[in-house]
């Protein structure tokens, strides 16, 4: 079950609507409201109507207590208005007596049991509705909040989000919907997956200007109400401002290439990596590397979230296909409020399943290779290709001849037979980037494989391939960077055999040759100019080599310079 947890709406209907749109898209089953529906801003009646039809649990916050105090006490009402603005007065005016009575009679906390999970809903703390538990609160205070038999304790009131874990118990401050005090224009909330026992902090952007116009009309002297909405986002908003990036699958060649690109371009940037083991050369490239469970393990999200909360990266770049599959399947696009840099969902759906790739091409009248599941019978012709239906790039493929059919016919539904495209020397790996505004950039490399990787390649211009890539980008409504693999056939021209919905294993080569898709993707995510595209002249050749690394018992590291053949020690 998916459960959304919202707190401190404060009459801000625009912020709430932004969250409810996302909640509806995600198929959330239930909403927990932690109080403060009223106060500060002016649309509590709209709030009441927006949430009334959802499956929900509610408690009250300190502003419902203020509403109760202001009902029949004019002097107290004036004092509240002077301190907090006219939000409580608007609640008195716009809500019916029945609605007001409902809100003020809500409990201050509530215990639930959902899918075997024990949940405690509070507003401020488990013992006081108006206590502030901030992200930097003393650890002893956070631990005190978990002195309960609940698996998850949800709080709000501080208007600043965080997640704190102790053993198997989790304390989550979901922040504020209507008045985020960390950054303006972003509504903060929580999303709990009861099956996986994982909670993440979500953030939904909304337009603050209509509310600011209301404030200027109703509470022109309450400058705080405006200033908090305009509070500057201190996070990075372009590549030039990035301080920390988390890259997963740091044992892999693509992740290490991305880390080298970032280190080469931005010397002060901190790169954190994680993978399922620690026996890899990432230790020589990343600032810190950590071991996390496999993406299929139940503790995977907890481990990654712990790193996110520890290092507070500006963005996360997931690089293993298993992780990408997990994130797309579960519609996870951010972790603890930090966004994942991934291509759009349709590009992943089409690229992750090689049968769907060919169906997509066929549906859009683009050249395609015949493809059949091994479990569906004999291939159309021999020789043909046998490959896994998902992932793996150009690794783990076999050329199947008719004499070999009986050997492979029971490989299972996870494998497909695919047309063997000729000639062999006309294989291309192509970088394809498209921005949110529709700008398309491509790079085409005629390559030769070595052990499943591009061992050699030459940069080329080819209008037929370039035009095909642009059509693919448009049909996918691509946002981000993907890798397209094809062969230039004699009969059908360029035919795509794979679309890999991630950065390529040649990402470092491409960057040096001018195709800086890592930088463009991050800048585009932040809505900043991409940067110019100045590729080198066609004819440039690339060669994949090997690098030796040594880690000594005392912690010192050595590498060999592959051009001057000198050892460096650090």
Description:
The chain is an alpha+beta fold and 570 residues long. It folds into 4 domains: 2-227, Metallo-dependent phosphatases (Purple Acid Phosphatase, chain A, domain 2, 4-Layer Sandwich); 239-341, Rossmann fold, CATH 3.40.50.20; 343-369 and 421-570, 2-Layer Sandwich (D-amino Acid Aminotransferase, Chain A, domain 1), CATH 3.30.470.20; 370-419, no CATH class. Helices cover 29% and strands 27% of the residues. The chain is built from 18 helices and 29 strands. Helix 3 packs antiparallel against helix 4 and helix 3 (62-71) crosses helix 5 (87-94). The two termini are 50 Å apart. The mean pLDDT is 91.
Tell me, briefly, the overall form: elongated
Poorly predicted runs: none
Count of β-strands:
29
Strand content: 25-35%
Let me know the largest β-sheet.
6 strands, antiparallel
* Number of discrete domains: 4
Distance between the termini: 50 Å
Quick synopsis:
This protein is α+β, with helices and mostly antiparallel strands and 570 residues long.
Question: Could you outline the blueprint of secondary structure elements for this entry?
Answer:
Blueprint (H helix, E strand, L loop, with lengths): L1 E5 L6 H14 L3 E4 L10 H8 L4 E3 L3 H10 L2 H11 L2 H8 L2 H8 L4 E6 L2 E6 L16 H7 L6 E4 L5 E6 L2 E6 L11 E8 L4 E8 L3 H10 L4 H5 L16 E5 L4 H13 L4 E6 L12 E4 L8 H12 L3 E3 L3 H9 L4 E2 L2 E2 L5 H8 L1 H10 L7 E3 L10 E5 L9 E3 L4 H4 L6 E5 L7 E8 L5 E11 L2 E8 L2 H14 L3 E10 L3 E8 L6 H6 L4 H9 L15 E3 L5 E3 L5 E4 L6 E3 L1
Parallel strand pairs: 1-2, 2-3, 5-6, 6-8, 11-12, 11-14, 12-13
Antiparallel strand pairs: 1-9, 4-5, 7-8, 9-10, 15-16, 17-20, 18-19, 18-20, 21-22, 21-24, 22-23, 23-26, 24-25, 27-28, 28-29
Helix pairs in contact: 3-4, 3-5, 12-13, 13-14
